[in-house]
Design brief:
The protein is of the alpha/beta class. Helix content is about 55%, strand content about 15%. Strands 4, 5, 6, 7 and 8 form a five-stranded mixed β-sheet that branches. The protein has a three-stranded antiparallel β-sheet with strand order 1-3-2. β7 and β8 form a beta hairpin.
């Protein structure tokens, strides 16, 4: 929210990474990765597309820009209130009629409040019964997904987005490495790539794929230096369970993918606490 307010407060202007770090994380020492991940999450929540932005545009090497039209809603409310007060002061009959209307609305509001309270009470009652009936099945489902992780397609955040092929290869390599871990369940690439480019909440993706964790990340490049950021998110609460950034020279692409996938696989196995078992 602080990031959104910062960009909206400078709508139409390019806000640098340093300015965002100073304003959004004033008392915390973080790296630019926090900005990149926060912008990615914010775009996902807004349903925005980085290649055809309606809200937040990336300005290469400079920062980010709020391209959506921004206006203060409070100003409109104050103007309407001023016009209403002026109109009532000039017309006493209108003022009396307005008071009568307000009284009627108050009575209706009280009745509706009582009805809503009764409906909520009934809903809670039936919901409790449903939860009690499904308690065993829910526990079984939780046990099955506790050691399951889905790898979402990594985002290409390079300048001009010219490394999408590498990002997709990084995703497939991670799925391959993780699926070879005994006791860990990983959905196939076809299932993960179904969500590429789609604005779907993490919780919904996890529920669809039957996993407890979701691994996502991004690929960036500076000159011949490549940076891959990976992040493991718990689906039940949205908290980040693990995150790491890997810097490699952009030479042997296949070797870079293999090395990073191996390190991520080992880190995730320890983070999730996978115990070897039958597959």
């Amino acid at each position: 929210m602080r990031l959104l307010l910062c960009l909206a407060g400078r709508a139409g202007q390019v806000v640098s990474i340093d300015d965002l770090l100073n304003e959004v994380w004033p008392d915390v020492t973080v790296t630019p990765d926090s900005v990149y991940q926060a912008v990615t999450s914010l775009r996902r929540l807004l349903g925005d597309d980085a290649k055809r932005p309606s809200y937040i545009a990336t300005v290469p090497r400079l920062g980010y820009q709020m391209v959506a039209k921004v206006s203060a809603w409070e100003d409109s409310i104050e103007i309407l209130n001023d016009l209403s007060v002026a109109s009532l002061s000039k017309n006493p009959e209108l003022a009396a009629s307005n008071r009568a209307t307000q009284n009627s609305r108050l009575v209706v509001g009280l009745v509706l409040s009582l009805v809503i309270a009764v409906v909520i009470a009934l809903a809670v009652f039936f919901l409790d019964r449903k939860l009690a009936n499904n308690k065993l099945s829910a526990s079984a489902e939780t046990a099955q997904t506790a050691q399951a992780v889905a790898v979402l397609p990594f985002l290409d955040l390079t300048e001009g987005m010219q490394e999408e092929t590498f990002a997709d290869g990084m995703t497939e390599e991670l799925i391959d490495k993780l699926s070879k871990t005994p006791g860990l369940r990983v959905p196939a690439p076809t299932a993960s790539f179904y969500f590429k480019g789609k604005q779907v909440p993490i919780a919904d993706i996890a529920k669809t794929l039957g996993v407890a964790y979701v691994l996502d990340g991004s690929v960036r490049k500076s000159g011949r230096q490549l940076r891959v950021a990976a992040r493991l998110v718990r689906a039940d609460n949205g908290y980040v369970a693990w995150t790491e950034t890997y810097d490699r020279p952009f030479e042997d692409i296949i070797k870079v993918q293999d090395d990073i996938a191996g390190e991520v696989s080992n880190a995730l196995r320890l983070s999730i606490g996978v115990k070897p078992g039958p597959r």
